[in-house]
Amino acid sequence: MKAPNELEGSQLYNQANLDGLDFKTTSDLNELTDLLGQPRASAALQFGMGMDQKGYNIFALGPTGTGKQQILRDYFEKRAAEEPVPDDWCYVNNFVEQHKPKAIRLPAGQGLVFRNDLNDLVEGLSTALTAAFESEEYQTRRQAIGEEFQELQSQAFNSIQEMAEKKGIALLRTPSGLVFAPVNDGQVLSPEELKDLSVEERKRLEEEIEVLQGELQKSLQQVPAWQRETQEKLRELNREISNFAVGGLIDELREKYSAYPAIVEHLGAVQSDIVENAHDFIQAGEKSNGSDLPAVLKVLGQKTEAGSVLARRYRVNLLVDNSQLEGAPVVYENSPTYQNLIGRIEHRAQMGALLTDFNLIKSGALHKANGGYLILDAHKLLQQPYAWDALKRALQAGEIRIESIGQMLSLVSTISLEPDPIKLDIKIALFGESFLYYMLYQLDPEFGELFKAEVDFSESMDRSGKNQELYARLIATLVKEEGLSPFNRAAVERVLEQSARMVGDAEKLSMRTHSIRDLLRESAYWAKESGDDLVKAEHVQQAIDSQIYRADRIRERMQESIERNIVLIDTRGETIGQVNGLSVIMLGNFAFGRPSRITARIRLGKGNVIDIEREVDLGGPLHSKGVLILTGYLGARYADEEPLSLSASLVFEQSYGGVDGDSASSAELYALLSAIAETPIRQSFAVTGSVNQLGVVQAIGGVNEKIEGFFDVCREQGLTGKQGVLIPSSNVQHLMLRHDIVEAVEAGQFHIYPIDNIDQGIEILTGLPAGKADENGEFPEGSVNYRVKKRLVDLANKREELLNIDQKAGS
Q1: Is 663 marked active-site?
Q2: Options 596, 706, 783, 789, the catalytic residue
Q3: Whole-angstrom Cα distance, residue 740 to residue 23?
Q4: pLDDT tens digits, 550-564
Q5: Is 287 noted as a catalytic residue in this protein?
Q6: Burial status of residue 70 (CB atoms within 10 A of its CB: 0-12, 13-18, 19 or more)
Q7: Annotated active-site residue in 655, 663, 690, 729
Q8: Which of 124, 219, 487, 714 has CB 3.0 to 4.6 Å from 491, enough for a Cys bridge?
Q9: Residue range 447-470: average pLDDT?
Q10: Do residues 593 and 582 lie in contact, with contact meaning Cβ atoms separated by under 8 Å?
Q11: CA triplet 607, 596, 582: central angle to 5 degrees?
């Protein structure tokens, strides 16, 4: 079998080359205006914004840090600038049903004018009503109505008094009321004089007084009716005066807003309400001021915590004011709670009670973005109780209905406001991780009907020459946006190389612009610290090293435990059934490689390969799958005609946490083959790569970190020139290794071999040929495969002998 060629230093690091771009610093480069590296997302965005039909809202999915929110905002703002400004929305009092405020829609900017006009009207009404009710005409007519009432009372009293006088009886006023008493020569008879009267006279007087009391009672019974009649006349007078006082002011507004039927109707309702309630205003004024004069102005202007009584009743609640907009609105709601989305109805405390009115209706993000675009973080939205349901309900109904959560869930029966719903015309964009999109699509049947525009952001782009030049312009754009010092050519190339490292692929560039921004900011910081006005490659490298240093305390502790032989890792010598495996540990945004010792032990058995990690619940399903694949490989290749008669155990030594993934399956297979063949493995090598049942070594993730982790151990224990790593050949394209490793490889102190299959790997690890089977399935004597098969045949024969002995003993 042809041995794999060792990788050269040039294959371990793909250097950036911007020779085709003429610039010295980022200041010489044009800013990038188009979306870079996201052709699919760009096309989907254009489609989603262009579709006006219901349900074509946008969901931008992709990894965190790809700038989805900013890209959405940029696209929306560009399109919104070309669209008309949406209408204003107002709420006004409903004088018939106070708990159902009316919504009025007006052209942009007209809502503010309408509100100001109504405020001016209130001030004008106060002045006009005060002048009218304090006029001489009103006072005269009011006095006349009062005198008419007094006249009726006087006539009735005088009539009874005359009747009594003719019969020798006087009508007297006493503290306890009106009484009748006999008189003689104008003097009330004393009790003694009454006794001196004859019985017939006393009886006559009693009968006369009884008749007079009846007449008096009839007269007194008419007083309430006269009072009601008088009050009605006063009310009618007040209506007449009020209508006269406010009619002219409101007629002016009617003419001004004649093109808006809703406003004309509301002005009519305002006028009717003022006319109908003028008497109450006057009475309240008299009561509050302790004066007989009407004090309408003082009542109408009376201040409370909620403002002027009249102002609150007749003012306009400008819910949405678009007077300052140029184009359609673009709104990002950072806290998408239920109330922040659909609006809320506030309450004010007054004398121990919570009160509300239409003035306390507040707008939500849907109101502010109505007629434009709303951007929401899907994760934050789903965290808020009932917010997702409220958003769906608004989109499905095409209207915004403001109601409390208690009302929505029918948990409260108290009377509250039920404002008119507002027509909704909006394009919504959610953004979040891909799993959120697919979870919602799977679990919520309504989601697919409401968010039909899927905008899928990629975390990487191809690292072609053209794309590298565009990426350099992206770097220049970010530098200018952040107000950083210019980057020279070498610094830009170093950022490009680190971008490839971030995505773990030498042929790709990272689209996680947030991480690139951080790198640019920190590079500029180190340039400033060193007193340079220009950011250079060494400053970028210093920023990278600083990021690692801040995060690698745990890596250093693990490395120290290997150096002190607390965790056992050999980089010299040979051992049977033992191999160095490689894994990656991810802590936050920092990943590093960690070598682990993998051992295998075999014995006579029934063909079971025991995964010790799985047996103690430390192994994940993917790791267990890899171990089961090993069993299939062994049986198919070495025991196709006889039973696989061994039991094997595999374990990650000194592993005290969970193990998952199949990237160690090739290393486990090497250890297993070594144990079966009783052939030692060189401990100077570490291995990574998954394997299938055909023995093909497959790509794994984190190849750069894994190589670097083992190299650091070898360097601490001393480089011998024989150490190295075996990786899948399909991972070569991902290599972006540290420069010290590249230099060690070029100096022949460290070796990296790309492996296609298990046979190639076992030859490097053992120094023996793997051996290729002939047409009879036999391997060359002395090869590793020959030793494996011979040992398995011996185990099968031994097992058969033991079975025969057991059968004879049983018979």
Answers
A1: yes
A2: 706
A3: 29
A4: 999 999 999 999 999
A5: no
A6: middle
A7: 663
A8: 487
A9: 94
A10: yes
A11: 90
